[in-house]
Design a protein that fits this description.
mainly beta; Immunoglobulin-like; five-stranded antiparallel β-sheet; two-stranded antiparallel ribbon; 7 strands; 54% strand
């Protein structure tokens, strides 16, 4: 990773539980020492487990572009919004 400012902290917005059939949103922001998002692509992993401790969707690897990532789980598929204006889906 090449960045002008080093990552110092994470801001994570995620629900404690996911509800079947409802959209769940995860927002991850990688912050520098001043509290601003870093200007870099930062890889990260989300690990979600079901009640039996098995990996569940949306477990996987992602990237925070310009320090920001938003991951939405809707219905059967997963919609990834990576950075600003970049979207990918694996439905």
């Amino acid at each position: 990773m090449i960045a002008d400012r080093l990552p110092e902290a994470l801001r994570i917005s995620a629900p404690e539980q996911m509800e079947r059939g409802k959209t769940t949103v995860f927002e991850i922001t990688v912050l520098d020492a001043s509290g601003a998002p870093v200007s870099a692509v930062v890889p990260f992993e989300i690990r979600i487990e079901d009640p039996a401790f098995r990996p569940a969707e949306p477990t996987g690897s992602y990237a925070a572009v310009n320090g920001k990532a938003r991951v939405e789980r809707t219905g059967k598929g997963l919609k990834r919004t990576i950075g600003v204006g970049s979207e990918r889906s694996n439905d």
